[in-house]
Structure formats: structure tokens, C-alpha cells
């Protein structure tokens, strides 16, 4: 059984309606990175992925066309220099400290807005070393 990502989001709630619709049609769905994204949202590297078996892909495309969604495979960042999909976040030491503190506070139950922390974060290609936003 090969799973294919049909939609990605930072929030589980963005995928809930489509997941419910697919399951009502008898199509099994998997939410990849669901718990990680709930704890650490707003970080570009942590997306929730709605996945289905590739056998059901034709029916899924029909349902998504009815609901106004479109199938998007691989919406992750791509290096503009070499076209590689091997991308990592480039974080300064200060941003890493802020991130660890934010994760600690989230674990304690407080609501920490991480969108400001990652607003101007750059991405770095692991193949060629190019930096981009």
C-alpha cells in the first residue's frame, strides 16, 4: 500500500472536512505529522499531510474536484538554484534558543505565537548550499 499526499496544511482543521468526506465515501485516510503540527505550528518544516492509498487516487481526484480542492503533490520548498527538494531551515543561535523556549512553554500548556519567530527565516539547500526565502 503506497500512500500519496493529496493535501498539506499547517493546521489539522484545514484537512478535517476533506478527510471526513473521503472517509464517508469509504476511502481510508491518514494524517501524517498530525501531532507534531499541533504542538509546533507556523514552522514551514512541519506540515500535516493528508494521505490516501494510490489505488483510490482517481476517485479522490473526482471528490476533490466536487469540493473545489485540487490534488497537489509535493508543495514543499524547492531550491531555485539546483531544483533539489532537500531543504532545511537556517536558524541563528538566538532563534534556536527562542524555539526551544517556545516548545518548552507549549509543553507547559501556554499559547506561544511562533509566526513572529519564523517570519523572516531563510531556507538552505542541502545539495548546493544556496539560501533563499
Task: Write up this protein.
A hairpin with a 5-residue loop joins strand 5 and strand 6. The model has no long low-confidence stretch (mean pLDDT 77). A three-stranded antiparallel β-sheet has the order 1-3-2. The protein has a three-stranded antiparallel β-sheet with strand order 4-5-6, with no helix packed on it. By secondary structure, the chain is of the alpha+beta class. The protein is built from four helices and six strands. It has helices at 13-24, 34-39, 57-67, 93-107; strands at 3-9, 29-32, 48-53, 87-90, 122-125, 131-132. The protein has two domains: 3-67, Alpha-Beta Plaits (2-Layer Sandwich); 87-132, no CATH class. Helix content is 33%, strand content 20%. The termini are far apart. The longest helix has 15 residues, at 93-107. It is globular.
Short overview:
By secondary structure, the protein is α+β, with helices and mostly antiparallel strands.
Look up the CATH topology of the largest domain. Alpha-Beta Plaits
Largest β-sheet summary: 3 strands, antiparallel
Low-confidence stretches: none
Strand content: 15-25%
Q: What structural category arises from helix and sheet content?
A: alpha+beta
CATH class of the largest domain: Alpha Beta
Oligomerization state of this entry?
single chain
**Helical residue percent?**
25-40%
In whole angstroms, how far apart are the ends? Answer: 35 Å
